[in-house]
Specification:
alpha+beta, Pseudouridine synthase, 9-stranded mixed sheet, two-stranded antiparallel ribbon, 11 strands
Length: about 200
């Protein structure tokens, strides 16, 4: 029987179970279940949804870019972009270390999302306003959103993955709703049935 765990990863937690030689917490400090591993990675300075499982086929299916499973992030950026500023992200083709990005879905959030305060908080600059974006990717290159937002002149201050779609259409998703940072839960039987269908 496979295990499926949904974790809301806090800031500064390394997305692996083994220590990396420093004092930063790892997934082992939050999920006391042996044999499960993260589906994809989430940077140490990023927060939010991490799916863990011992189902190797599912890990491959959800991590491999060819399957294009959408992942949605709430992104706090320095400055206030307008629609034209965001067009390069939507259009795709931003060059990042020899790789050109796929088109992303990007929306400006009308108000700050309801999230627990980050610990430690971001460094605000009184002279520079901030804003929030919702960005959905179908890929996951190393530090991609941070590098993309910097390319268009709006550096990322806070990055939270809020959902992972189990279908390309995005209509079947897992989210961090109801989980505080550091909390986790097992997937429901209904969610597991959906995963079984995806795997074929």
């Amino acid at each position: 029987m496979y295990r499926y765990i949904l974790l809301n990863k806090p800031y500064n937690v390394i997305c692996q179970f083994s220590p990396n030689g420093n004092d930063n917490p790892t997934l082992k400090d939050y999920v006391p279940i042996p044999g499960v591993y993260p589906v994809g990675r989430l940077d140490q300075d990023s927060e939010g949804l991490v799916l863990l499982t011992d189902n190797g086929l599912l890990q491959h299916r959800l991590s491999d870019p060819q399957y294009a499973h959408p992942k949605t992030y709430w992104v706090q950026v320095e400055g206030i972009p307008d629609e034209d500023s965001l067009e390069p992200l939507r259009r795709g083709g931003i060059l990042l270390q020899g790789y050109r990005t796929r088109p992303a879905k990007v929306e400006i959030l009308a108000q700050e999302p309801t999230l627990p305060p980050r610990n430690p908080p971001i460094r605000y600059r009184k002279s520079v306003p901030t804003s929030w974006l919702e960005i959905t990717l179908t890929e996951g290159k190393n530090r991609q959103i941070r590098r993309m937002s910097a390319k268009i002149g709006f550096p990322t201050l806070r990055l939270v993955r809020v959902s992972l779609s189990l279908s390309k259409s995005g209509n079947l998703s897992l989210s961090i709703d109801g989980l505080e940072p550091g909390q986790w839960r097992e997937l429901t039987q209904g969610e597991i049935k959906i995963i079984s269908v995806i795997q074929g």
